[in-house]
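Thread title: Can someone regenerate the structure for this chain?

I was given the following input by a collaborator and told the matching structure tokens would be attached. They weren't. Posting the sequence so someone can regenerate them.
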Amino acid sequence: MNFTMSGNEWFILGGAVLSVCLFLCVRKHFHPAVILLLWLFVTALVETFDYALAATPFRMYYCGDNQSYEISGAVLAIFVYPAYAYLFLYIYDKWKLRGGKLLLYILAWIVLSLAIEWLFDRFGVFHYTGWKLAYSALVYVFCDFVLLWIYRFILRHLPPNVPQRP
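Best answer:
Regenerated them for you:
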């Protein structure tokens, strides 16, 4: 594995630290079982999309300084994306969003996600070789709805002796 700490790795590290801080602020809202299940799900979802789009035959983009898998991609998948998902679900739960308000909320998160991805692109974290930022909007729509579905599924299927929130 070829690894050096350049500007994009420092940007990812800063994003990971910020993400962990955000997670620490909202973690008490979720039962530890929910945290673990969501972390596993989000990490698997991100890695699945990344592998499908970044690997052969598509090679639509790569993360880091070269086209081989780098530790920086793992840091994003393991720390940044799950923390982002917890914040998304925390606000969704706190505001008890449904109907039109939920759609506006998801739209706002899509815009925020695109802005963050654009920022990551500008700092050299992502390198598009066929991917366009606009394509990500469709991925975010899918992922937001799947995340809400899996969160509701987890809450519905917790054993009766496990509170939904501590």
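The chain is about 70% helix and 5% strand.
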